[in-house]
Design goal:
single chain; 303 residues; alpha/beta; TIM Barrel; seven-stranded mixed β-sheet; 11 helices; 7 strands; 38% helix; globular; binds adenosine monophosphate; binds fe (iii) ion; binds zinc ion
């Protein structure tokens, strides 16, 4: 399968720009959160997609790091240990902060992601109890699809709905009964974005604002939230991502150059859970170098 198929124009540009050079994708999920592959399978898929560097960035969890690192050493891939922190503004807007090379044992950051993970579990149970009033769905159906210790999210409820024949795929579930506008939707605790940025830095990590203008997912934040995140130590913006509309990207690149942030491009691969393909967007070696230079909590894993 071509890694240059099935993506937007910006993604094409980013891929073409680095063709023949080092291919770096810094946003991907495994079964430790809502990807569909084990960390080992994810690393193998990255090799198959001819990537040189991959970051594993499961939601609110680092428990895939060791397995991914073993696979990366074995298969000859450079691995950046990372994570995607779920956040929410006081107005209720969802924000995702990517963290690279943080100390996974840092108490302050660990406490926040543990709180969010626990809240995700009760929230998922609550959503399933609401859905069960109208659809053939039980909590058991959801946990059956879950890897042990995985960060539970709506994608896992979607998988159970697919198995029950209620929807055809995750995308249909998100477009209908799992949408944030649906009556079955329940929120969960998540830290404010600036707090997450501060904690990632405190843990020696490098914080990057993930898909900042992904309007199809819901409301996106205004400039004041960017300012708060920048003041808290934000390092970069994920500009090249299929969910960032083309016409909003100049705003991001302008803000990045004005505030001294680097920009990244990545796939946000979820295995079979999303159409996003590994390497459909890539990050420059310069931005990757900056991440490695700033990261103090964990080292990049080289084969
Ligand atoms: P949650 O964090 O539990 O509210 O669920 C949001 C997660 O669902 C995000 O991490 C996305 O990766 C995933 N997601 C959002 N929209 C879709 C979609 N249309 N198809 C598959 N996965 C999605
Ligand atoms: Fe996800
Ligand atoms: Fe995200
Ligand atoms: Zn993601």
């Amino acid at each position: 399968m071509s890694s240059r198929s099935a993506h937007g124009e910006g993604a094409c540009t980013a891929s073409r720009r680095y063709r023949g050079g080092v291919r770096i994708d810094l946003h991907a999920h495994s079964r430790v959160s809502d990807g569909t592959e084990t960390p080992t399978e994810l690393v193998a898929a990255a090799v198959e997609a001819r990537l040189d560097v991959l970051a594993i960035t499961d939601h609110d969890s680092t428990s895939g790091w060791d397995e991914a690192a073993d696979a990366a050493r074995r298969l000859g891939l450079t691995l950046v240990p990372g994570m995607e922190v779920s956040c929410r503004t006081p107005e209720g807007i969802s924000v995702h902060v990517l963290s690279y090379l943080q100390d996974p044992a840092h108490a302050g950051l660990l406490e926040e992601i543990t709180k969010a993970k626990d809240a995700r579990l009760s929230r998922a149970e609550h959503m399933v109890s609401l859905l069960a009033e109208d659809y053939p769905l039980s909590w058991d159906d959801v946990t059956r699809h879950l890897a042990p210790g995985a960060t539970v999210g709506r994608p896992h409820i979607a998988d159970a709905l697919v198995a029950a024949g209620v929807v055809d795929d995750r995308a249909e579930a998100f477009a209908t009964i799992l949408s944030s506008r649906a009556r079955y939707f329940v929120q969960h605790y998540a830290p404010e974005p600036a707090l997450a940025v501060e904690l990632v830095r405190a843990a020696g990590g490098v914080p990057v604002f993930a898909h900042p203008v992904a309007s199809a997912r819901g409301r996106t934040v205004g400039e004041s939230v960017y300012r708060e995140m920048i003041d808290a130590g934000l390092a970069g913006l994920e500009v090249f991502h299929r969910d960032n509309p083309e016409d909003r990207r100049p705003f991001l690149t302008h803000l990045a150059s004005e505030a001294g942030l680097f920009v990244t491009g990545s796939s946000d691969y979820h295995g079979a859970g999303k159409p996003n393909r590994l390497g459909e967007n890539v990050t420059t070696p310069e931005a990757f170098g900056e991440i490695e230079r700033q990261g103090r909590g964990t080292a990049v894993v080289r084969p």
